[in-house]
Design a protein that fits this description.
Blueprint: E1 27-28, E2 34-38, E3 48-49, E4 56-57, E5 62-65, E6 74-75, E7 80-89, E8 95-103, H1 123-132, H2 145-148, E9 161-166, H3 175-182, H4 184-198, E10 202-208, H5 212-221, E11 228-233, H6 242-250, E12 265-269, H7 270-282, E13 288-294, E14 302-307, H8 312-319, E15 327-332, E16 339-341, E17 354-359, H9 378-382, H10 389-397, H11 401-406, H12 417-421, H13 428-440
Helix pairs in contact: 1-4, 3-5, 4-7, 10-13
């Protein structure tokens, strides 16, 4: 496919705003004095703590054991002493048990970590090791990676394509772009391991056409790889959405409530491929990741290798040169799908791709009062899932969960295209996100105390 063909229907064009960091090499964020490592930083059952206060731990040591098949191990990101276990709010409003570790400054690695020979890496061993080493989706979804490579059920369509997502269409975020440029060999090796685990004959590395340097490098790297190709995709949001990327690369449509495996595909982030490569080749668990810290509210925007459990405050102060001006808005994640948070006292988790900080000089720090819907249908045109956001939101405002679900509230991917296009500034995606919580909770909003609103009787 050409760049024009490798796209999808719907979506929006958002200002990329990547110039602050896309040309900056990855640096290392200084290791903090204390880390706070959540046990529930992946989709599925949280890990169960296997350490207690007073225990000494080393880097890469298991401190949380996977709580089931759809779960993943959690590892210490520093060496030192376990100070305690506590419950903490995450940026999405959920609560997670966390392990606090005081860093001893020695960076002692766990003695059990050993590299693997290629002969050891059978499909079954790869799946087991992905869970043991805590590999999850690092594009933000945090789905345990080993689950994707479980053998297909009898009669199911076999996996024939593994797609690595290097799209990174969120404004300001450049951690994947820099990873493509600086860890290309590990990305390709990780993809080869994924192909081996799935027995898929074809691998695709998908990159948006606003990253010509990464495209050129990857095309050069895979020139002699007969079963791996680079797919250039048109710059459009949310091109990096799993279902839309599959359509752009293969022309296949994932059915409603379906999974990529239903159409013979698996999608993984390029950062996940790097983490998998290092886990399978070198025996190194996922205890650090690249985080973009950007916005006009920091003195030194950049891309920083950061230990899991590092606070946003430590990234800003120790790596990004501190706050610049008066704080106006903090966003955990990307501008479109991230969460505005009330402080920098949140920990980096495996899915944290960015911490964006804006001061009062930024337009993003201003609150815009919503107005009544003007029925322009711009949200309908923008929706990449072909939904009617205003109909769903009207049902949610009435707390009519049956009507919200009948209009496919569950199918919303929460990309925010509708809210971005809305001239009345209605927070459409936020309403839909809240509605999903109520529907799952049968009228109760789940863990977030702000959603504990009684259902209106009909």
């Amino acid at each position: 496919m050409s760049a024009q063909e490798a796209s999808f229907i719907g979506g929006v064009h958002v200002p990329p705003s990547k110039g602050l960091t896309d040309k900056l090499p990855i640096e290392r964020c200084p290791v903090p004095d204390t880390v706070c490592i959540p046990l529930g930083m992946h989709i599925g059952k949280p890990a169960a703590a296997v350490v207690k206060p007073g225990d000494k731990v080393t880097i890469g040591q298991v401190i949380g054991k996977a709580g089931g098949f759809v779960s993943s191990n959690v590892h210490a990101s520093v060496s030192g002493m376990v100070m305690g276990l506590q419950k903490r709010y995450m940026p999405n409003g959920m609560i997670s048990n966390c392990i606090l570790i005081k860093n001893d400054g020695l960076d002692t690695m766990c003695e059990d970590l050993k590299p693997h020979t290629d002969a050891e890496l059978t499909p079954e061993f790869i799946r087991t090791e992905l869970q043991e080493k805590g590999i999850v989706g690092m594009g933000g979804a945090t789905f345990p990676t080993h689950v994707k490579y479980a053998p297909p059920k009898e009669g199911a369509r076999p996996i024939d394509t593994v797609i690595l997502n290097g799209i990174e269409c969120e404004p300001y975020v450049t951690c994947d772009h820099r990873t493509l440029l600086e860890s290309a060999d590990d990305i390709i090796q990780g993809l080869k391991y994924f192909l081996r685990a799935s027995n898929a004959p074809k691998g695709i590395i998908a990159i948006e056409d606003n990253k010509p340097d990464a495209i050129a490098l990857m095309q050069k790297k895979v020139a002699n790889e007969p079963n791996i190709e680079v797919q250039v995709c048109a710059e459009k949001y949310p091109q990096g959405s799993e279902k839309h990327l599959i359509y752009a690369c293969t022309g296949r449509t994932v059915p409603d409530r379906g999974l990529p495996g239903d159409v013979g595909a698996i999608v993984d982030n390029v950062g996940t491929a790097v983490a998998a490569c290092r886990a399978l080749r070198d025996g190194i668990p996922l205890y650090e990741r690249v985080v973009t810290c950007s916005g006009n509210g920091v003195n030194k925007p950049g891309n920083y290798i950061t230990r899991i459990g590092t606070s946003y405050k430590d990234i800003v102060e120790k790596a990004a040169g501190g706050v610049k001006g008066d704080l106006g808005k903090i966003v955990s994640g990307g501008m479109m799908m991230g969460f505005a948070v009330n402080s920098l006292d949140y920990p980096v988790i495996k899915g944290t791709g960015a911490v964006l900080v804006f001061n009062h000089e930024s337009e993003f720090s201003d609150y815009v009062e919503p107005h009544n819907c003007v029925h322009c249908a711009r949200c309908v045109d923008a929706c990449p899932m072909h939904l009617e956001p205003t109909v769903i939101v009207t049902a949610i405002k009435k707390q009519d969960w049956d009507a919200a679900e009948a209009n496919y509230c569950h199918a919303c991917i929460e990309c925010g295209s509708c809210a971005f296009q809305c001239p009345a500034h209605i927070p459409l995606v936020q309403y839909i996100r809240m509605g999903k919580l109520f529907i799952r909770g049968k009228g109760n909003g789940g863990h977030n105390p702000y959603y504990q609103v009684p259902q209106v009787k009909k």
